[in-house]
């Protein structure tokens, strides 16, 4: 098979594929598309950037085109499960692009978005629903969604769904689907847990393995730079300022770290944006759209968003911090060298991360080449004193709740002869003054009873 027309796809779908500039299917597309069009269950293992999304979207659109019928209220004919919001949005975008001449009805159901709007989108039924497991189950429990009419279910990035702890939700969803259905499971890696899942829910599947397990794409030029942790910021700026860095993704281990790196890059004039789990859905969508359009040239992300970044033209990936799980390295560097292009991945490793680096090298079965320290870019967009004040502000400790001790004014607590306790009344002073002076004054002052009598006394004329 040398082109998409030989796969038997409908003419409107072929037109949409051709308009996107694709003429020949990738290896996984050439195997998965015919199998899905025949109704066979599929177990696909392929690394990121090999065209897995189109491999299941195109046959789904072809089936919907050939067997057109209205969807039932709150139900769908095809259900696609995704581990992250970004990946769900990316799949929906692919459906709309490849289905622009067939116009299937599509609803996206993900966490972090308004539930009333999603209930409204599901009310009349849809041809395709793209969902994250947790939000879909919430809508099913509230009787805003039905799963009894699903004809095809796709589990995309199954290994990441397991890593994120979605397996209990996946099993609940699968238990509510019709027994007679087509099931497709696609994954970048195939650990034992994912294979057990496939054995439980797939019926005589066609297993398609395109690349060895967890091996990054050979077109990626992978380098590692051993540097102290305190030098990573400056090296990152110098690396991104080089010629040829058109669009880059920088990965950090924590959400707070992503925000700090993004702020540092902003200070040096880079068009940077951060994307992680603490960002709202609108913020994450806005950052990704800016990255796709070119308004944002550096995207700082955590691992949870790694597989949802499907943007052609990412020239460089930087591992600012190494991931705790070696498999995450494969998905990080897979953001570059997509759609047949080459790419470069740089890993910044300090002494505390050497063990993580060895785990990655064991996984990919090769040593990562050592890179040279990039030359200083000379990129200065802020005054040195502003940069220094910024760095000091980042390093200052958090305030504590303990109240500071009050200092005594200079000279207080000293006698005139230089000894202590000067300026302080002598002990027993009030008592002595009360006996000597205050006694007579207390006798002269009216007591409470006397004051009350004075207030109640009437003038003589009034009497």
TrEMBL record:
Species, as recorded: Pyruvatibacter mobilis
Record domain Helicase C-terminal: where: 232-379
UniProt feature coiled coil, ranges: none
Gene Ontology MF terms in the entry: ATP binding; hydrolase activity; nucleic acid binding; RNA helicase activity
Protein name: DEAD/DEAH box helicase
Helicase ATP-binding domain boundaries: 33-208
Entry's Gene Ontology cellular component terms: cytosol
Bias kind Basic and acidic residues: ranges: 384-398
Lineage, top ranks: Bacteria, Pseudomonadati, Pseudomonadota, Alphaproteobacteria, Hyphomicrobiales
Protein's UniProt keywords contain Repeat: no
Listed PROSITE patterns: HELICASE_ATP_BIND_1 (PS51192), HELICASE_CTER (PS51194), Q_MOTIF (PS51195)
Keyword list, A-Z: ATP-binding, Helicase, Hydrolase, Nucleotide-binding
Domain (DEAD-box RNA helicase Q) ranges: 2-30
Chain spans, region Disordered: 373-463
Locus of motif Q motif: 2-30
SMART domains: DEXDc (SM00487), HELICc (SM00490)
Family stated for the protein in its record: Belongs to the DEAD box helicase family.
